[in-house]
Design goal:
37% helix; 283 residues; single chain; 2 domains; two-stranded antiparallel ribbon; alpha/beta; 2-enoyl-CoA Hydratase, Chain A, domain 1
Length: 283
C-alpha cells in the first residue's frame, strides 16, 4: 500500500484551521498599557493588576468591595435611592433609556454603592463608585446616597472610606447634579465637626465635580498608581492654555510630588493601609 502523501499547508489552510479553534471570547485580556496578553482568571486573581507592568485595571464597585471589606461583612444602605428624570432630558436617546441600558449592562442600579463593612476587623462606612455605570457620574441619587452614608457614619461614630472613580457631574441632570457637590461637601463638614475620620481613595479616573467636591476633602487622601486625577482633563487644559503639559501631569505620582495626595498605594496594599489608618486614628 502506498504511503499517504504528506499534506502541504498554505496560508488559506492555516487561516481555516485557526478559525475552527478560536479562543473563547473574554478568556484573554490585553493590557492597554504594555500590550501583554493576560489570562483573565490570572489577572483577576492578581486583583486586576497587570503582572507585567503593574497597570491597575479599572474594576467594578462589587469587585472593589470584595477586595477591601472582610468577606460577607458589607451591609448596603440607601439602595432604595434611585435616579429619576426630573428634567425630561433627551440627547440621542431619553435619559431613562440610558439608565435602563446601564443597569442591564452592568448589573448595578447606580454609580455608587454605600454600606457599613469590616476592614480587617475594623468597622467603617464604605462608599465605592462604579465607573461602568454612566462613567461613574454623580447625579442626584449618587449625591443622596453619599450624603446618607456620611450621616450614618456620624450617627454610628464610624470612620468613612470613599473610593472615587468618576467622570464628574451627570450632564443629564444639569444643575441638579452640580448641587450634589455642595450637598456632599456640607455633609462632610458635619462629619468633620463630629470628629470623624475620612479616608479618600482616588482611583482611575477621578475627575470633574467629584474631584471638585468630596474626593479631595479627605483627612487622608490615598491614590492608586498612575490614576488620572483632576478637574478638567489634560487635553482640555492643553488646548485652553496652549502649552505643553509636564510629563505625568494629573497622574497620582505627579499629585503626590506636588502635595495633592498623601500617599500612592498599590491595590494589593490598600486594604492594609486603610485598616492601619483607622487603627492609628483610634477609630
Amino acid at each position: 500500500m502506498a504511503e499517504p502523501t504528506p499534506r502541504t499547508w498554505n496560508d488559506a489552510d492555516l487561516a481555516t484551521a485557526t478559525r475552527k479553534k478560536q479562543v473563547p471570547e473574554g478568556l484573554w485580556v490585553r493590557c492597554e498599557k504594555c500590550g501583554a496578553m493576560l489570562f483573565r482568571r490570572a489577572l483577576e486573581n492578581n486583583l486586576s493588576v497587570c503582572p507585567e507592568c503593574d497597570n491597575h485595571f479599572r474594576i467594578s464597585a462589587p469587585d472593589r468591595i470584595a477586595q477591601i471589606a472582610d468577606p460577607g461583612s458589607f451591609d448596603e444602605i440607601a439602595s432604595d435611592v434611585q435616579s429619576t428624570d426630573p428634567l425630561g432630558f433627551v440627547d440621542t436617546k431619553p435619559y431613562p433609556d440610558r439608565l435602563k441600558a446601564a443597569k442591564s449592562r452592568t448589573g448595578a442600579d447606580e454609580a455608587v454603592q454605600c454600606g457599613s463593612a469590616f476592614i480587617k476587623g475594623r468597622k467603617a462606612m464604605l462608599v465605592v463608585m462604579d465607573f461602568r455605570f454612566l462613567g461613574g457620574s454623580m447625579g442626584s441619587a449618587v449625591g443622596e446616597r453619599i450624603a446618607r452614608a456620611v450621616e450614618e457614619a456620624i450617627s454610628q461614630d464610624l470612620p468613612l472610606v470613599i473610593v472615587s472613580a468618576s467622570g464628574g457631574a451627570r450632564m443629564m441632570e444639569s444643575g441638579l447634579s452640580l448641587m450634589q457637590m455642595a450637598k456632599t461637601s456640607a455633609a462632610l463638614a458635619r462629619f468633620d465637626e463630629a470628629g470623624g475620620l475620612y479616608i479618600s481613595v482616588l482611583t482611575d479616573p477621578t475627575t470633574g465635580g467629584v474631584t471638585a467636591s468630596f474626593a479631595m476633602l479627605g483627612d487622608v487622601t490615598l491614590a492608586e498608581p498612575d490614576a488620572l486625577i483632576g478637574f478638567a482633563g489634560p487635553r482640555v487644559i492643553k488646548n485652553t492654555i496652549r502649552q505643553d503639559l509636564p510629563e505625568g501631569f494629573q497622574r497620582s505620582e505627579f499629585l503626590l510630588k506636588h502635595g495633592f495626595v498623601d500617599r500612592v498605594v498599590a491595590r494589593r496594599d490598600l486594604r492594609s493601609e486603610i485598616s492601619s489608618l483607622i487603627d492609628y486614628a483610634g477609630k
